Structure formats: C-alpha cells, structure tokens
C-alpha cells in the first residue's frame, strides 16, 4: 500500500514537470524521477483538479471563521500544505497529515533537510513528540496507522486537533486499502466527533465491467487490493454509506462529469494540447472508474456542500435495454495467435475469408505495432487462422493503426491513412494485391503484394480514426473518405470522394446541414450513400448524432436520421447495416453505469433499441473498443476480432480470442 503512494507521487511529479499541474514542491518531496505516459498525466491531472477544487472551496466558504483545520488521511508525500501556504490560503487553518510511521518519518526528514520546505513551515520546535514526527505552527505530521482508530484519535488530540471548529477530512485513494469495517468506523467517527465537518473522498468504482476487472486485478497483483469496491461498487452506494454513518449532506461525481462541469473550457483546451494524445477511450474509461465525493454535517446553511452549486449534469437513469445477446468464444481449428490487437482493421475479402491488418498488439510474446497480416478462413463451421505471405517482403508494412481497408474486388484492396505514433503525420495509401484466381482453403496459401501509390490523392489520406465507405454516384463507384484526425487537427469534418479507378478526388456537390467534425465514428454503405453514426467531437465529447449522406441527381445531401429514444452518444464502436437496420457494436460512452453492447436502429421508423452482451461464457473481460467486427449475413452472426487498450497504469488488456454474437433472435424480432 505504501508502494502505491510512492508511485502516485512519482506520477504527480511527472505531470507537474509537463505543465499539467502547477506544483513546484513535488520535486522536492519525490526522490525518483520518471516520465510517465500522457494518459497517466491526464489521470493525475483530473485527480489533482478534483481534490484542489474541493479543498479551495472549503477554505473559501469558511474564511470568515476564526479557525479551521484540515486532516489529510494517508497523505504520503503530498505537497498540499506547502501549496496552500505558498499562495496564502492558510491564514487561520492548521493542516494535520497522517500516514504510516515510517512514511511520516521519511517526510519529516525531507522537510528538515530542504530549506525551501522548512522555511515555509517555520519549524517551531525541532523534533515532534511521540507520534508527531514534525510540528510547525500550522502543520503537524503524524505517524499512525489509520486502521487503529483509537491510536489515531489519541494522536490527533495530543497534536491539538479541535473537534468544535470546521474540519475538512481528505482521503485520496486511501480508505479503499483498509478493511471495510475499519474504514466505515473512521467515516462514522469523523461524523460523530466533529460538530462541523466535511469529508472529501477520491476513489475507484465500478469493479465489474471489463475495465473495472482489469483495474481490480492490477491492484490485487500489487498486493494492495481495493477492499471498498465489493461493498460500495458505485457512487450511489458510497453516498448511502456516508448518510448511514451520520453525514447529512453528500454529493458524488465521476471524473467525466467533473471534467465537463467543473473545469472551464479554456482550461480543458490547455490541458488537451499539452502532449500528442490518442488514447481517448482509456481516458474516458479511467474517468468513469474514479469519483470525487464530498459529505458534510453541522455546517451553516450558507455553506453548501462542495459540488452542490455545480450544475451536475442531468444523469439519465440506467440505459433501458431490450434484452441481451450471448457472446461465445469462436470455434477455432487451431490456437489463434496474432489476433490479440487493437486499432487494427478487419475486412471480408470474400465469403468466409477475413483479412486483419495493422494495429497494436502481441506478436512473439511482446507488445508492438503489428507487422503481420492475419487471415481467418471458415471451413465446416470452424475458423482456421494463419498469416498471409507477402510477395515482396522487402516492402515492409509500416505497422499502422486506425487505418481503413476497402475491398474493391476479390483481388484488390485499398489501405487508406492510419498512423504510427500520434505525433507523426498520418500515412498515405497502399494497394494490397492478391492473386487473380485464388481459392484458398488453407490460410497459409494466401499471398499479397504491397504497392505504394504515387502521391495522387495523398493529402486527403493523411489522417487516422476516419472512415472510408463505398458510395455510388451516376453508376460509378467512389470511396467516401470522411472525418478522422491528423497530427495537426485533433478532429476533422471534411470529406473527399476518391474515384476508385484513378484514386483522384472527384468534385461532387454535397448539400444539407454539414455534420459536426468527428473521429472514431462508424460509417456504412446504404442505398448508394453512407450512414455516419456517433464519434468523438471537437471538445473530446462523444456524439449521438446519425447522418445519412443520400444520393441525389446532381450530387449528395446530408440528412439527419432521428432516433427515438435518442441514441446514447458513443465512439470507437463498429457498425453494420442489415435489412434496413443499423447495428452499432460496442464502443465507449460516458454513462459509467454500464458498457455499450449492441444497439439496433430501425432506419425506417427510427426506433433505437439497446441490447447488453452477456459474457458469462467468456473467462476474460471483453473490451469492445478499438476492435473490429465482421457481419456474416447467412448465419446472422457477428464475429468480433481484437479490441482492448492500454488501461491507464493498470496494464494493457487485449481480448485474447475472437468472439461470436448470434443476432438471429434480435433481427427476427424486429
């Protein structure tokens, strides 16, 4: 548990060094320096903002009081006291920090040795007494195990804590490491013993969905299990916990809500522009698995509990579902390697033959951008897996992610866009040529030739997270290239009609209201036009709009497809059209209470029905974002390939094998 405190201090320090948080004291308190990934920086940024917001709110609302106090439980190497003192917010507030005795001793030694820190505290008596490892006029550092409540109470009393003045308790990812009976007792003790108190809790939630399972497993492997989750799995359960333990007001918000409601737009944009970033799915999932809670009791009416004056977003209740679809592991002839990946693309080359290219995943036991082309062939109800041979092995596939592959004939496919790293420019176009007459019964029989293109329509192709969809205009085939993002533009709203013969951009007029810019949306061919659904918009907010680009005599026209109930905004899903129904599969949304399953939109009536995916037959968490899916019309089945991602600092999760969803029930019932 102490290790988690040390590693989170290193992460905060790395975030401060990159400008995410303003904190010049962290580097003085943290010995080790490590540069963390942008996703981790964002995670610690939102944590620091949430805690800082609530602490400053407390100090602001109680500034007319002669004395107040803050008790930081499990403070570790946090710099809160020094930051508040430095900006002059502690005129009449004493800060008490509590942690394990050895942690408190290390911190006390650091403060004494560091001029800049000891000068701020104004050391008043050298050595502390008993469990007090350091004592200044407005700062007391105590070495006590929080799970020993009577010892904690005695230590705080001896250090001068006053239970009659406004007191803020802070527990930032601390209580969850204690046994529930002990953390409950601590919450109750704070409510019972202090006449005017606030409690600030920042912690994990939603242990049972795929991301939650990966998160729990990580902490268990680190030998620091998250004990609160089983009894208090979500915000409502935590709220009830505080009411039952004697607190009278209580508000809770997950970090997606906090980011949207409590961080000004210009600050959101400043943070989003700090580093090249392309892990939106895991950022939103991380934020839906952490909450900030504030509770209060005995405070004056004018002192509303933290967050209550915020416009908390209108929370739609749980998603109403029309039923569930059972996921089953795909019957395979052979052990399948090479399909543990995300950000790849799968395409049906011809009936029962599926080609998967690119993405990031596991090859030869290590994680890398995938260089091998993978093929699945169905024979006698079973799938066989193998690798495609490249005819010109000197032409290396560049291991791109978030590209598209469009089949133009049995022997020809076009790769458009994609990226290597999010800071490098998008990649152009490539032909994949297969033998004219191939009759593959064995995966290893298939060969492919890679052909780079002259930079004809190149500029339009330098993007990723876009869509490329076949449309027909005046009897001719075009590829409609839409949306996505580039190294310069975080979101694109433009399009281009690629003529499939000469691959040049054709000028075809388009009328109607232009959809807002988006990437990670879905696009399907329908009636000669294209259906665009969902995506991530300009402010990194998921979109719930559906558009149809419809063919007219003189060009195309954008039309809005009204859905009822309205489609829940989502992105990073896949989509298919079958028999007048648009099927949306998986993806990420900001409802933290559940994960997207399959949504069926009737394109005639606009009726929108959500189905959950029943995963009881799978032995591993099924993460349905950055996956690919292929619809098999004869069987009315969906084959889901790959998917997953880098789950914050909890490790990378890759769905280990393809999964089949049988849709015959839900497609028949419509």
UniProtKB/TrEMBL annotation:
Coiled coil: none annotated. Keywords: Methyltransferase, S-adenosyl-L-methionine, Transferase, tRNA processing. Its EC number is 2.1.1.290, 2.3.1.231. InterPro entries: Gal_Oxase/kelch_b-propeller, Kelch-typ_b-propeller, Ppm1/Ppm2/Tcmp, SAM-dependent_MTases_sf. Pfam families: Beta-prop_TYW4, LCM. It catalyses: 7-[(3S)-3-amino-3-carboxypropyl]wyosine(37) in tRNA(Phe) + S-adenosyl-L-methionine = 7-[(3S)-(3-amino-3-methoxycarbonyl)propyl]wyosine(37) in tRNA(Phe) + S-adenosyl-L-homocysteine; 7-[(3S)-(3-amino-3-methoxycarbonyl)propyl]wyosine(37) in tRNA(Phe) + S-adenosyl-L-methionine + CO2 = wybutosine(37) in tRNA(Phe) + S-adenosyl-L-homocysteine + 2 H(+). Interacts with RNF144B/IBRDC2. Belongs to the methyltransferase superfamily. LCMT family. Probable S-adenosyl-L-methionine-dependent methyltransferase that acts as a component of the wybutosine biosynthesis pathway. Wybutosine is a hyper modified guanosine with a tricyclic base found at the 3'-position adjacent to the anticodon of eukaryotic phenylalanine tRNA. May methylate the carboxyl group of leucine residues to form alpha-leucine ester residues. This is tRNA wybutosine-synthesizing protein 4.
């Amino acid at each position: 548990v102490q290790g988690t405190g040390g590693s989170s201090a290193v992460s905060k320090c790395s975030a401060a060094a990159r400008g995410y948080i303003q904190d010049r004291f962290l580097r003085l308190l943290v010995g080790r320096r490590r540069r963390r990934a942008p996703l981790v920086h964002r995670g610690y940024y939102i944590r620091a903002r949430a805690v800082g917001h609530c602490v400053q709110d407390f100090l602001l609302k109680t500034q007319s009081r002669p004395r107040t106090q803050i008790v930081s439980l499990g403070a570790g190497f946090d710099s809160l006291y020094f930051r508040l003192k430095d900006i002059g917010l502690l005129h009449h507030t004493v800060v008490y920090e509590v942690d394990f005795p050895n942690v408190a001793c290390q911190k006390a030694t650091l403060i004494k040795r560091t001029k800049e820190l000891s000068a701020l505290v104004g050391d008043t008596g050298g050595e502390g007494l008993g469990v007090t490892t350091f004592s200044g006029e407005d700062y007391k550092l105590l070495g006590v195990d929080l799970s020993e409540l009577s010892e904690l109470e005695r230590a705080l009393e001896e250090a001068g804590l006053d239970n009659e003045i406004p007191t803020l308790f802070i527990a930032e990812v601390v209580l969850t490491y204690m046994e529930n009976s002990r953390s409950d007792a601590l919450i109750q003790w704070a409510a019972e013993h202090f006449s005017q108190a606030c409690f600030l809790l920042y912690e994990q939630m939603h242990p049972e969905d795929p991301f939650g399972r990966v998160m729990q497993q990580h902490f268990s492997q680190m030998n620091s299990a998250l004990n609160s989750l089983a009894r208090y799995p979500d915000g409502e359960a935590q709220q009830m916990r505080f009411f039952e333990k004697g607190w009278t007001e209580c508000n809770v918000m997950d970090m997606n809500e906090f980011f949207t409601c409590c961080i000004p737009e210009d600050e959101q944009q400043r943070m989003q522009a700090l580093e090249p970033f392309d892990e939106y799915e895991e950022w939103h999932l991380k934020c839906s698995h952490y909450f900030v809670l504030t509770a209060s009791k005995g405070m004056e009416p004018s002192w509303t509990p933290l967050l209550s004056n915020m416009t908390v977003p209108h929370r739609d209740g749980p998603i109403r579902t029309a039923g569930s679809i059972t996921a089953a592991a795909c019957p395979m002839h052979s052990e399948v390697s090479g399909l543990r990946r995300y950000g790849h693309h799968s395409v049906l080359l011809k009936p029962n033959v599926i080609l998967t290219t690119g993405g990031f995943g596991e090859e030869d036991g290590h994680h890398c951008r995938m260089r091998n082309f993978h093929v699945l062939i169905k024979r006698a109800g079973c799938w066989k897996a193998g690798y495609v041979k490249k005819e010109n092995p000197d032409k290396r596939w560049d291991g791109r992610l978030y590209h598209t592959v469009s089949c133009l004939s049995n022997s020809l496919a076009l790769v458009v866009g994609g990226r290597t790293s999010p800071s490098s420019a998008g990649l152009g176009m490539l032909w994949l040529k297969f033998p004219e007459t191939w009759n593959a019964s064995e995966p290893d029989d298939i060969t492919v030739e890679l052909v780079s293109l002259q930079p004809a329509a190149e500029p339009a192709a330098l993007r990723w997270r876009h869509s490329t969809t076949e449309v027909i205009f005046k009897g001719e085939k075009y590829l409609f290239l839409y949306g996505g993002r580039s190294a310069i533009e975080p979101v694109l709203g433009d399009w281009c009609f690629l003529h499939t013969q000469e691959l040049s951009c054709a000028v075809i007029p388009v009328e109607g209201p232009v959809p807002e810019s988006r990437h990670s949306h879905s696009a399907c061919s329908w009636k000669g036009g294209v259906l665009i659904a969902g995506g991530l918009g300009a402010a990194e907010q998921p979109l719930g709009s559906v558009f149809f680009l419809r063919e007219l005599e003189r060009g195309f026209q954008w039309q809005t497809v009204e859905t009822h109930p309205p489609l829940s905004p989502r992105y990073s899903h896949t989509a298919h059209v079958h028999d007048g129904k648009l099927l949306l599969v998986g993806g990420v949304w900001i409802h933290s209470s559940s994960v997207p399953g399959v949504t069926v939109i009737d394109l005639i009536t606009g009726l929108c029905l959500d189905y959950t995916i029943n995963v009881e037959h799978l032995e591993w968490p099924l993460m349905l974002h950055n996956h690919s899916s292929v619809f098999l019309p004869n069987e009315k089945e969906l084959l889901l390939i790959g998917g997953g991602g880098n789950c914050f600092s909890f490790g990378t999760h890759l769905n280990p094998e393809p999964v089949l969803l049988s849709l015959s029930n839900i497609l028949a019932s419509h």
